[in-house]
Each structure stands twice: as structure tokens, then as C-alpha cells.
Amino acid sequence: MTDTILRLMEPHAAPARRGIGVRLLAFIVLFSSFVTLVLTAIELYIDFRVDVNTIEERLNEIERGYLDSLGSSLWNVDLQQIRLQLDGILRLPDMRAAEVRETVPGIAAPIVISAGAPSPYAALVRERAIKVSVRGGERTIGVFRVEASLEGVYQRLINKTAIILVSQGVKTFIVSLFILFIVHRLVTRVLVDIAARLDAYEHQGRPGPLRIPVPPGHHADELGRVVKALNASFDGLHSANRQLVEMNAELERDIAARLRAEQEVVRLNAGLEQRVRQRTAELEAANGELDSFVYSVSHDLRAPVRRIEGFTRLLDEDPNSALSEKSRHYLTRIRAGAGEMGEMIESFLKLSRSTRADLAIATVDLSALAAQTFANLREREPERAVTAEIQPGLTVQGDPRLLDIVVGNLIGNAWKYSRNVPDAVIAFGAQESFGRTVYAVRDNGAGFAAELADRLFVPFVRLHRPEEFEGSGIGLATVRRILARHGGRIWAESDTGRGATFFFTLWEPRGTDETPHDPAGRG
After folding, report:
1. Of 494, 499, 497, 505, which is closest to residue 454 (Cα–Cα)?
2. How far is 56 from 49, CA to CA, in rounded Å?
3. How far lies 447's CA from each of 420, 438, 457, 461, 492, in Å?
4. Which ranges in the chain are annotated with CATH 3.30.565.10?
5. 67-99 residue pLDDT tens
6. Please, are residues 415 and 432 in contact by the beta-carbon 8 Å criterion?
7. pTM above 0.70?
8. 3-state class (DSSP) for residue 42
């Protein structure tokens, strides 16, 4: 029957069974059934309480009407009267059993009179003591027990439940079908027509903006306003689609132009890369030739300088030489100059070696290198009291030989420039800053003017007079080259008379320009 009604209501039978009509019917039936069950349960509970209260009141009436007469009959041992009264109680509605039991102490065979049988169902049981007045007082002589069955109450509730559910179910089904019919006439049919027009418009290839006529009788209601809003939206979508087509055409032209530009960039980049490779090869060849030249010149100059130093020493030590004091002073100056030249040549060779050999990468313990450097310096100058602070566990990847030169030069400089400080302190440590590890060598020695920091790493540039501190001015330049080969940098901070701190990094990412903070917090 339901299928027949749905087929009459829906012009398209298959879509209706899968559409909102059947779901609406199911929701209405489920909700109505839920409400019916809740209301039925409430009504049945109220009826149950009314019936139970009625039975309770009947038990109270039995107690008021029979308890005294049963006590008189039991005291007079009128068993016939007791049985008649119990039979009268059982004739009342829902009463199933009654009993009188004598409880006087000392009686060998107490009187027990019963009527009826206990109910197998739930029951209400009432027990009361039977008392009589004897010599101005009350005496308990027995117990009166009466049982009322709830079987009739339950049966009445079951019958009423069946009637309510059947009647409410029929009413719910009829009302649901009527609501479904109304919804179909007012809403669903219009929606199906709109969907059919949309589907037909899609298959036509969208020649123009979609127009849906307002259904008859719906010009002023919500569906009419929905259709008008859809038509306005379709007009806007058609206009936006036309603009989008024009923009797509313009975008295609832009893409084509960009592709041509990218091809030109690729061509230019290819030529640029070729020129860069060529310039790089030329620069590497020139650097190699320059390093070879520096090494050759430095190596070849050592022999003449040694001969000058040797002959001046022989001439100065010759007992047969008749040189004046002034001439011997000149020889001493020549020997000192030759010594300085020898140191400079040796520094040239160290600088050249730091960039010529290939790197042998391994795990290097910088803390151990620093400790060994301090040990060597103390062995060379045991009379100095210098406090060395070394952070343990500083390990890196690098060339052990070259990193030993870096640590040795930096700690050696700190040792040299703090010789005039009574309580010299030299510290070597590291700290994370800007996502990288920054190493630092700090002393409390002579220091230097802050504005001269950039000149420290230029070969043969010295910020102190030779008579104050010895040196060739090549050590920090060598350190800078070694760190550059290890992908790192070096910089310094100081102030005259307040010590100096040299910071350096290893294996920094390419394109890193900013200077990390001072690991000790000095900026």
C-alpha cells in the first residue's frame, strides 16, 4: 500500500524511493513512535501506581474492618467465625490468601487457619499483630497475614498497552502519509523539477544563463524566493564564467610569454655558467701558480738569508778581525734583520702549506689540542703563572694538522699578549648561537683598539711594536685561511688594556653573513 501511495505521489518513482520522501516518512514514524512509547510508559506507570494505591487502601480497610473481630474470635477460639471472615476477605478483588496464626507462648499446638493460596506472581503482603484487651492492657495473641496479588494489575496494563500501541501506530502512520503528501505537493515536486532543469541545462553545454520559472502558486512563499535567488546566482555565475574564460585566455598568453622568457633565461644561464667555470678554472690556475711562486720564492730565499746570517756571525766571532764597535753594531743589526727575514720566509712557507695540501678530514678533539698547547707553553716558560680554562668535550670534523695550527696560534697569541698581566687567565670554550657552534679563545692581556680589528688578519700587519711583542704578523692570516678551508670564519673583539676574544666557526652553511653572539654573552 505504501509503495502504491509513493508511486502516485512521485512522478519519478525510482528517485522518490531514494529521495527525501521516504527518509522524511521514516523520521516522522520514528519520532512519533518514540513519543508514543514515552507517553505510553508514563501513562502506564501512572495507572500502575493508581492500581497499587487502590490495593493498598483495600488492605488498609481489611485491617480496620477485620483485625478486631479476628482478635475476638481467636481469643474465644471460635474457629468457624475465623474461617468465615477469611473467606469473606478472599472475595474482595485481588485478594489471594489470608491466614491467622496464634502466637501465645506456652501452647503446644497453636491455632493456624489459612484460606486461599499464595500468588506465583508479584504480590503485596500485609502482616499485623492480633491484640486483645485483658485486665486493662493489650496482649498479642496472634498474627494476621493477608496477600494481594498484582496479576490483575499487570494484565490490565498489558491489555491497555496493546490497545494504545495499535491505535497510536495506526494514527501515526496515517498522519505521516498525510504529511508526506503535503510535503511532496508543496516542496518535493518543485525541487525535482528544479533538479531536472539543472540536469538538462548541464547536458546542453550551457549555451546561456540558466533560468528556472517560478512554480505556480509559489511566487510569494519561500520556494519562490529560493528560485528567484537561484536565477540571480546563475546570472552572476554566467557572468563570472565569461570573465574567467577571458582571464584564462589572457593567462595562457602570459604563460606562453613566460615560457619564452624562461627559455631565454636558461640559455643565458648556460652561457653564464660556462663563463663562470672558465673564470673559476683561470682563478684556480692563477692561485695555484701564485702559491707555487710564493713557496718557491720562500724556499729559495732561505739559503741566501742563512748565508748572510752565517757570514756575519763568522765575521763577528773572528778573533783576527779588526772591526770597530760601530762595525760590530752594524753586523748585529744585519744579523737581526736576517733573522727577521728568516722568520718571515718561514711564515710565508707556513701560509703556503696551509692552502696547498688536501684536507684529511677526521674527528678532532679541540679540547685535547688546547690542553697540549698549554702544556707546551708551560714547558717553554715554566716561570709564568697562567690560569687555563678549557671546556671539555669539544670535538669537530676537520684536518687534525691544520686545526692544531689554529688552536696553537690563537692560544699562543693569548699567552704572548698576556705576559705583562700578573694574574693571566686564558679560556677556551664554545656555545651554540644562531643555530651554530661558536668557539672562542679569551684572555685578559694587552688587547687592541676595537677599530683595528679588521687589520688583524692581513699578512704581516702587526698592531704592536716589535720591541713590545715579537712576531711576524702571519699567524692570524694563516688561521683565517685554514678556517676558510673548513667552511668557517674568524673575528675578534677587544679594547686596549682589557684583553681580547677571538671567535671562530667551522662548516657554516653557505650564504651565512650575520655574526653570531659572543658565547660568553659579550655580544
Report:
1. 494
2. 10
3. 11, 20, 15, 15, 10
4. 357-523
5. 888 888 888 888 899 899 889 888 988 898 999
6. no
7. no
8. helix
Q: Is the Cβ–Cβ distance between 231 and 208 less than 8 Å?
A: no
Tens-place pLDDT, residues 382-408: 999 899 999 999 999 999 999 999 999
Q: Which residue has the cell 679569551?
A: 442
Contacts 24+ apart (CB under 8 A), 374-382: 374/411, 374/426, 377/411, 377/412, 377/415, 381/415
Cell representation of residue 39: 507517553
Q: Starting from the edge strand earliest in sequence, which strands make up the sheet with 490-494, in order? A: 386-390, 424-433, 436-443, 500-504, 490-494
Residue matched to cell numbers 478483588: 93
Top CATH class, 357-523 = alpha beta
Quote the cell numbers at residue 21: 520522501
Give the total residue count for the chain: 523
Find the radius of gyration of the CA atoms of the chain. 58
CA dist list (Å): 135 to 107, 452, 472? 21, 132, 141
Taking the C-alpha atoms of residue 349 and residue 343, their distance in angstroms, rounded to an integer, is 10
Place of cell 546542453: 204
Give the angle subtended at the CA of 368 by the CAs of 403 and 441, to the nearest 5°: 65
Give 459's DSSP letter: T
* Widest distance between CA atoms in the chain: 176
Q: Which residues contact 151 (CB under 8 A, 6 or more apart)?
A: 119, 121
Best CA proximity match to 294, nearest among 407, 459, 405: 459
For residue 84, the one-letter residue type is: L
Alpha-carbon distance 164 to 158, whole Å? 10
Q: For cell 492480633, what's the residue? A: 130
Cell 685554514 locates to 482
Per-residue b or e along 116-141, where b marks 16 or more CB atoms closer than 10 Å to that residue's CB: beebeeebbebebebbbeeeeeeeeb
Strand partners, 504: 439, 490
CA–CA dist 40, 55 (Å, integer): 22
